[in-house]
Amino acid sequence: MIAPQFQPVGDSGVMIRFGDEITDEIHAGVLAMDQAITAAELPGVRELVPSFTGLLVVYDPLETEYQTLIRAISGLSARSGDAREAREWCLPTCYEGDFAPDLQAVCDQTGLSSDAVINAHTSASYKLFMYGFAPGYGYLGGTPESIQLPRKTAPVRDIPKGAVMIAGPQCIVTTMVMPTGWWVIGRTDFEVFQPFEDNPFPVAVGDTIRFQRVSADDFMKGQKS
User: Fold this and answer.
1) Chain centroid to CA 142
2) Stretch 127-140: mean pLDDT
3) Average pLDDT across the chain, whole number
4) Which of 15, 59, 190, 199 suits a disulfide with 91, CB 3.0-4.6 Å?
């Protein structure tokens, strides 16, 4: 992993970049720096936003300045602090009928049966690398190569909340009705985004997710309970 590089973002942000590839090693550096800055409680720091390869530090320019913050962060760069223990989440997911409108298309393009596609998807462990695009829209890495497909050539409107989607090596669970060019292969009723809770994002960056196959009957029973 290369040494972190610092870039100004407007008049109240610092982008710390750890590389230009999506790898576990680079992302570990992002999370370690996130933990170190959080633990240090640096004056003026207001928000930390981790991504695939970098960490955005948002600060109050009335309390600190760019160069001062860079020097303080540089002193932390060699120390990772105590890393937060990642959690693993299990999301019950239905891969049947209208809950999986693109499953057959994925089968057609990969040459796999529907069971093979589902088994591949449920056998993997997905790491949450970052949030972006929409509230609770978590980008998960870990989709098996056997079911990786490029995005659709045109987006589809009105994809419902809870849609489980794949594109390339990534997977996402939608948190609201939205258009998407990703392949919808299932539906979960797990609330990835919980706006009325103290912590609206229960799945933290660095946590892992597994998808558990459930029948349509069991899925509907869960929604009614």
Assistant:
1) 11
2) 91
3) 92
4) 190
Choices 1.10.8.80, 3.30.450.20, 3.30.450.40, 3.30.1360.40: CATH for 5-74: 3.30.1360.40
pLDDT of residue 82: 53
Structure tokens at 63: 């309390």
Q: Looking at residues 56-66, what average pLDDT do you find?
A: 96
What is this structure's pTM? 0.84
Q: Is the dihedral of CA 63, 64, 65, 66 positive or negative?
A: negative
CATH class of 88-224: mainly beta
